[in-house]
């Protein structure tokens, strides 16, 4: 920057909050002294930050296959994003008034970008992906490895991986790769800590009081598109082969429908990290303080739709009033935080938190949001994998369905909830009723999901069904002369019986045929002793007979997501609009409309719980160096019942919390009406009707 701009910035940082310096006209010439430009930059930054945070969830099944992880481990990996965030978010209120907020946001964004780069590092330090046991360099050997070879030619089948492929170096490299990903996820959470709270408080400080809700609405609207873009990016990247930067000579014979296909999961992290790094640059040029915005944007008043702080006509909503209240008038830790040391802050915080949790409405709203967050966290992490396994769709298609249907439905639900609260002027009682109805219908829409799914694949030697089913019963005898490696995976399908074999060798196939076409080549295996007629049979898993159910399934899931999101704004208003007791939010750098951020702690255990439940439905595990690796096949009925059942459980918990909230509100309303009746002159004889202990009159003053 020029000397003139530097001097202007130095003079601005010394002036009191909300007052313009004598050189304010010079400051306003710079775009970095415009709160509108800050809103634009922060919207783009939060969009990119949520895109990189959500990208792992779109590629969770691909990462599992690439590095041999169980769903429990991948769920823990996804949850580590919240470890650093939750551990440090408490200190935001302490440092909020002591630091250069835009610059700290920039540092956090740079850390997020570095975490994204670190997340893609395992791809570059790992060996090329080998979708079978053969060497990827020698393609003829690659094909012959899965064929039936006589025991006389191969006398010693390998029931376990050889020492050469499972050296100590290989195991050390695997542990290093997993450790790098966990470290990257932790840094991603740490870097995200200052971005949202400091950005919101900065907008609140320097925007015009009437414009602040509009700016926050724009910010939230743009930010909510981040998860949808993450799934969309995942859908595009997973169409590309994982080793697109180091393809073997002659190409590969896999297609995206092959269960061994691994997409370019790492490429999305590079793109997202680049977007975050670019969005971070302007924050190093914003001043610590800027002149308070003087003019109101009247043009936007008619189109104002703020999901988290609805504004009623003619009067300010409680959330807007909380945004406008001066910092010194706020009760609790926010008022005294600037005067505390770090040690004093740590000692005071638990008392303030416990005092806050004593309010029943606040506690129940937080519990309901914890249940909702647990449901959302599990679905966001493992719904793509569930769709892949249950309906036999590709990872790319599953991500496009979620990014194009579920995420927009959730955004619409939040917006509609805010509009209902604003237009209908809903009070606490009606907000509670709206939350209860939204949770109830969301729960009811989950019931059909238990019955919408596909049966488990018939896999020779793994699934056992009653009856005379060709292929399953012939399995031990039909390939008796073949020496088949037990750790190989190259599935083929017998279309006549719809039986799937782990390898062509398991089906007794001795030859391979390639049919060339204009756009692609199709691989078939022939002379298969376990197949009626000997084949030929196509390579790959059997097609599902009920893949068409994925669209009705996603329609119900998306509608349920919209109804669940409908409760977001009314539940928040239950805290701010409660007339009987002032409920303060846990400390933040400045008051802002995200009290329910404290429910995001549910994002830590929920993916692990869902991942563990998914692992219990596995019927065939791949082995890697003597340890259990990725699951190859699941029991579809168990998978559906346990995954949807967990969602049903958390939705029931949220519904129970909203029912208790409505019951408490009705009881309090009844007591208030009774007390008002007693206080009316001439009706003092009705005082025995008052229930509960006698209260002082001043407690009921407006």
UniProtKB/TrEMBL annotation:
Residues 472-532 form the Kazal-like domain. The chain crosses the membrane at residues 37-56, 76-97, 104-125, 174-193, 214-242, 262-286, 361-383, 395-421, 433-453, 648-665. GO terms for molecular function: bile acid transmembrane transporter activity; sodium-independent organic anion transmembrane transporter activity. It holds the Pfam family OATP. Residues 1-24, 678-702 are annotated as: Disordered. Residues 693-702 have a biased composition (Basic and acidic residues). GO terms for cellular component: apical plasma membrane; basolateral plasma membrane. The keyword Zinc does not apply. It is a multi-pass membrane protein. InterPro entries: Kazal_dom, MFS_trans_sf, OATP. Keywords: Cell membrane, Disulfide bond, Ion transport, Membrane, Transmembrane, Transmembrane helix, Transport. NCBIfam families: oat. This is Solute carrier organic anion transporter family member. It comes from Puma concolor.
């Amino acid at each position: 920057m020029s000397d003139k701009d530097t001097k202007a910035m130095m003079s601005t940082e010394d002036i009191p909050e909300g007052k313009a310096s004598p050189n304010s006209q010079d400051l306003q010439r710079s775009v970095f002294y415009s709160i509108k430009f800050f809103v634009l930059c922060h919207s783009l930054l939060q969009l990119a930050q949520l895109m990189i945070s959500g990208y792992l969830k779109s590629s969770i099944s691909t990462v599992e296959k690439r590095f041999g992880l169980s769903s429990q481990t991948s769920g823990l990996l996804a949850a580590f994003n919240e470890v650093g965030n939750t551990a440090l978010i408490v200190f935001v209120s302490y440092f909020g008034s002591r630091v250069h907020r835009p610059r700290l946001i920039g540092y956090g964004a740079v850390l997020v970008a570095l975490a994204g780069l670190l997340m893609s590092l395992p791809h570059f330090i790992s060996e090329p992906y080998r979708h079978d046991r053969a060497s990827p360099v020698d393609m003829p050997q690659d094909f012959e490895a899965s064929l039936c070879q006589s025991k006389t030619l191969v006398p010693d089948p390998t029931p376990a991986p050889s020492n050469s492929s499972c050296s100590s170096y290989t195991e050390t490299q695997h542990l290093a790769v997993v450790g790098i990903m966990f470290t990257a996820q932790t840094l991603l959470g740490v870097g995200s800590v200052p971005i949202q709270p400091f950005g919101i408080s900065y907008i609140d400080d320097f925007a015009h009081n009437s414009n602040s809700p509009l700016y926050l609405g724009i910010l939230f609207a743009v930010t909510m598109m981040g998860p949808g873009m993450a799934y969309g990016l995942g859908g595009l990247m997973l169409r590309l082969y994982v080793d697109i930067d180091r393809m073997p000579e002659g190409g590969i014979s896999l297609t995206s429908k092959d269960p061994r296909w691994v997409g370019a999961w790492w490429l999305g992290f590079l793109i997202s990290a680049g977007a975050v790094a670019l969005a971070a640059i302007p924050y190093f040029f914003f001043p610590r303080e800027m002149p308070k915005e003087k003019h109101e944007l009247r043009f936007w008043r008619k189109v104002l739709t703020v999901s988290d702080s609805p504004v009623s006509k003619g009067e300010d909503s409680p959330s807007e009033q909380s945004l406008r209240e001066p910092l010194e008038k706020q009760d609790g830790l926010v008022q005294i935080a600037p005067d505390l040391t770090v040690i004093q802050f740590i000692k005071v915080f638990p008392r303030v938190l416990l005092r806050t949790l004593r309010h029943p409405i606040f506690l129940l709203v937080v519990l309901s949001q914890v249940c909702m967050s647990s449901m959302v966290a599990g679905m966001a992490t493992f719904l793509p994998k569930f769709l892949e396994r249950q309906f036999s769709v590709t990872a790319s298609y599953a991500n496009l369905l979620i990014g194009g249907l579920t995420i927009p439905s959730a955004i619409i639900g939040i917006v509609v909830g805010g509009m209902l609260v604003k237009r209908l002027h809903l009070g606490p009682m009606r907000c509670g009723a709206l939350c209860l109805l939204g949770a109830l219908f969301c729960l009811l829409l989950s019931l059909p999901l238990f019955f919408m799914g596909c049966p488990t694949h018939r896999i020779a030697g793994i699934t056992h069904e009653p009856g005379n089913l060709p292929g399953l019963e012939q399995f031990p005898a039909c390939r008796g002369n073949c020496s088949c490696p037990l750790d190989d995976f190259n599935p083929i399908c017998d279309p006549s019986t719809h039986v799937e074999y782990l390898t062509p060798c398991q089906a007794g196939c001795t030859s391979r045929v390639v049919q060339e076409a204009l756009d692609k080549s199709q691989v078939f295996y022939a002379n298969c002793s376990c197949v009626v007629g000997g084949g030929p049979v196509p390579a790959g898993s059997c097609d599902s007979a009920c893949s068409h159910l994925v669209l009705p399934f996603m329609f119900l899931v998306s509608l349920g997501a919209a109804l669940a999101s409908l409760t977001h704004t009314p539940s928040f208003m239950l805290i701010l609009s409660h007339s009987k007791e002032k409920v303060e939010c846990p400390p933040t750098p400045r008051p802002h409309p995200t009290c329910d951020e404290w429910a995001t702690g549910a994002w830590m255990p929920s993916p692990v719980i869902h991942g563990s439940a998914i692992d219990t439905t596995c019927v065939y595990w791949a082995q890697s160096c003597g340890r259990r690796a990725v699951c190859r096949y699941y029991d579809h009925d168990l998978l559906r019942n346990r995954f949807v059942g967990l969602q049903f459980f958390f939705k029931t918990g949220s519904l129970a919390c909203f029912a208790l909230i409505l019951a408490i509100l009705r009881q309090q309303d009844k007591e208030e009406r009774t007390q008002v009746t007693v206080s009316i002159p001439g009706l003092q004889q009705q005082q025995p009707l008052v229930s509960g202990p006698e209260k002082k009159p001043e407690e009921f003053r407006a």
